[in-house]
Amino acid sequence: MTFEQLGLSAELLRAVHEQGYTEPTPIQAQAIPVILEGKDVMGGAQTGTGKTASFVLPMLKRLEVHANNSMSPAKHPIRAVILTPTRELAMQVHDSVKTYGKYLVLRSALVYGGVSIDTQIAAVRAGVEILVATPGRLLDHIQQKTVMLSKVEILILDEADRMLDMGFLPDLKQIIQLLPMQRQNLMFSATFSDEIKKLANKILKDPVLIEVARRNSISELITHVVYPVEVPQKQSALMHLIKKQNLQQVLVFTRTKIGADRLAHFLSRQNISCAAIHGDRNQLQRTQALEDFKQNAIRVLVATDVAARGLDIEELTHVINFELPNNPEDYVHRIGRTGRAGAKGYAISFVDKDEDSLLASIEKLLGIKVKVDQLDESELRKQQNEFVKKTGPAKEDKEKTRFSQERKRFEPRFGKYNETNYGATARKTAAGKANKIEDPLFTQPYISKYPDIASLATAGELNKKTINKRFANRALPALFTAINKQK
Ligand code: AMP
Fold first, then answer.
1. Is 47 in the pocket of ligand 1 (CB under 6 A)?
2. How far is the CA of 96 from the centre of ligand 1 (A)?
C-alpha cells in the first residue's frame, strides 16, 4: 500500500514524502479512506502508531475546498476542531497540521490553558479553518465570543480516554452542544472503557471501528529489562548506566514531582545536562525542556507521568523507569515513547524489593515476563565512591537521614514506609473525594469552570456587566476602547 493509493491530493503527498514516510502505517491505511468518505470513525490506537497523520491528512483533504487567500476573517470560519487532553499533545497535533498542510493555504491556530489568552485571541480572530484546543480553554474563548463554532464540519477528539480520566466530560458536552448537528466526528482512544463507549454512542453516528493495536499491547521492538536496585542506590545506578552505555538521550520517569526535581538536581551536579518536566513547571519551562531534549541540547529529561502520553520524540531509544508507576497501564504509556515508527527501543526499570508487586502487575498486564539483569556491583560501588569523593560523605549520609526521617513521620500515620506506598497515599490524598483520577499535570483534579450551558451564558453576561461598570461615567475611555475594538 502506498500513500498515493489513499486518495490524498498532490500537496498532501508532497508534504508526506518530505517527512520521509514511505508507506502508510496500518491505522493510516485503514482510517484515511474511511474519513475521506465522510464517515464517522472510532479509532483504537495509541500514540506511536501514526494516528495523528491518520486523521490530520484526510481532514486537510476534506477542507481543501475551503482554502482561500482572502484577508477577511469572515472567509476563514472554523471548519474543524481538534480537542486534546493536554497542552503538549495539542502542540504536537498542531505541529502535524502545519507540517502536513504546508502546501495548502488553510489556516490553523492552537489554544490551550495555562498561558495568557490574549495572543490566542488575536490568532483566532484573524480567522482559521482548523482549531486545535484543550477543552477548558476553548470554552474560555467561546465565553469571550472570540470563537464561533457554527461552521464546524469536523470534530476530532484525540486521546478521548485521557480526556475522560482528567474530568473533561462536562466541557466536552458543552462544546458538542455548540456544534452544528450535521458534522463528521472522529474519536481516538487508546483504551475502550464503558465510559468511552458511552461517549462514542453519544457523539458518533454509525462509526466505522478501526483498531490497530490491541489494548495495552506494546511494541515488539522494545526490549524490557529490570535491574533490581535498592532505593538509596538508584541515583548511582542511573549514572552508571548513562556513563557505561554512553546514553545521549534518555527519558527518565519518576513517580512524584519532587522526585523528578531531586533527580534532575542530582544529575546536574554530576554534570549531566538535564531538565525536569512536570505539572509544577510552567508552560514555558515545559516547552523549553522538551525542545532542548528533542534538539539534543540536554541528555536527560526527567518526567512524571504527565509526559508519558502524547510526547513524540523522534528516535528516542531509552526510557528508564527510575521508579515503577503505581498504575501498570502507565508503564505502557511511559515506554510507548520509545520503539516508535519502526525504531528499536529499550525500557529499563530500576526495581526495589518494595516495588516487586508493581512489577508483577505490569507483567500480568503485558502478558510477558520481563528479563531481570544485574548491574555490575563493582562498577556501581566505584560510581558511588566517585560521588562520595566529589560531594563528600556528608551528602550520602544526608540522603540516608532524609530517608529515615521521612519514614519516622510516615509510618505512624500510614503504615510501612517505602517510596511505593508513600506515592500511592499521596496520590489518593491529592485526588480527594472527587473520585477522579489525579493527573500529575494538575495539583488538583480538573473541575470545569462551566458545568452547564447556563453558567456559560451567565459568565458572558457577567463579563458584559464588568465591562459596563468599568466604563461607568467614563465616556471617553469607553469610546476609545470601542474604536480600538473595531480596528
Ligand atoms: P503518532 O502516533 O501520530 O504520535 O506518530 C508517531 C510517529 O510516527 C511520529 O513521529 C510521526 O512522524 C511518525 N509517522 C507517522 N506516520 C508515519 C509513516 N507513515 N511512516 C513513518 N513514520 C510515520
1. yes
2. 10
Task: Please state which of the ranges 41-45, 148-152, 227-231, 439-443 shows the lowest mean pLDDT.
Answer: 439-443
pTM over 0.90: no
| 231 neighbors 295 (Cβ within 8 angstroms) | no
**CATH class of the region 222-388:** alpha beta
Alpha carbon of 115 to ligand 1 centroid (Å): 28
Q: Which three cell numbers stand for residue 66?
A: 475551503
Q: Yes or no: say if 262 and 323 are a contact pair by the CB < 8 Å rule.
A: no
H or E element in which residue 195 lies: helix 194-203
Q: Which CATH architecture has domain 3-211?
A: 3-Layer(aba) Sandwich (3.40)
Cβ of 21 less than 6 Å from ligand 1: yes
Among 23, 52, 210, the mutation site with the greatest number of ligand 1 atoms within 8 A of its Cβ is 52
Among the residue ranges 370-384, 427-441, 443-457, the one predicted with the least confidence is 427-441
Contacts of 180 (CB under 8 A, 6+ apart): 149, 150, 151, 152, 153
Give whichever of 206-215, 282-291, 354-363, 371-380 has the largest mean pLDDT.
Answer: 354-363
Q: Could you check whether 3-211 and 222-388 share the same CATH topology?
A: yes
Q: Where are the domains of the chain?
A: 3-211, 222-388, 395-438, 453-486
**What is the C-alpha to C-alpha distance for residues 105 and 413, in angstroms, rounded to an integer?**
61
Q: Which tens digits make up the pLDDT trace of 111-135?
A: 999 889 999 999 999 999 999 999 9
Cβ(311) – ligand 1 distance below 6 Å: no
Q: What digits encode the pLDDT tens for the residues 223-264?
A: 899 999 998 889 989 998 998 888 888 999 999 888 999 999
62: number of Cβ within 10 Å: 18
Give the length of the chain: 487
User: What atom in ligand 1 is closest to the CA of residue 46?
Assistant: 2
Looking from the CA of residue 25, the nearest atom of ligand 1 is 19
pLDDT of residue 444: 45
Ligand 1 centroid – CA 341 distance (Å): 6
- Count of C-beta atoms within a 10 Å radius of residue 10: 9
pLDDT tens digit sequence for 51-94: 999 999 999 999 999 999 999 999 999 999 999 998 889 999 99
Dist CA 17 CA 100 (whole Å): 10
Q: Which of 25, 54, 156, 189 to mutate to test the pocket of ligand 1 (most atoms within 8 A of CB)?
A: 25
How close is the Cα of 256 to the center of ligand 1, in Å? 30
Average pLDDT value for residue range 186-208: 89
The pLDDT, as a whole number, for residue 465 is 58
Report the nearest atom of ligand 1 relative to the CA of 24.
Answer: 19
* Nearest ligand 1 atom to alpha carbon 96: 12
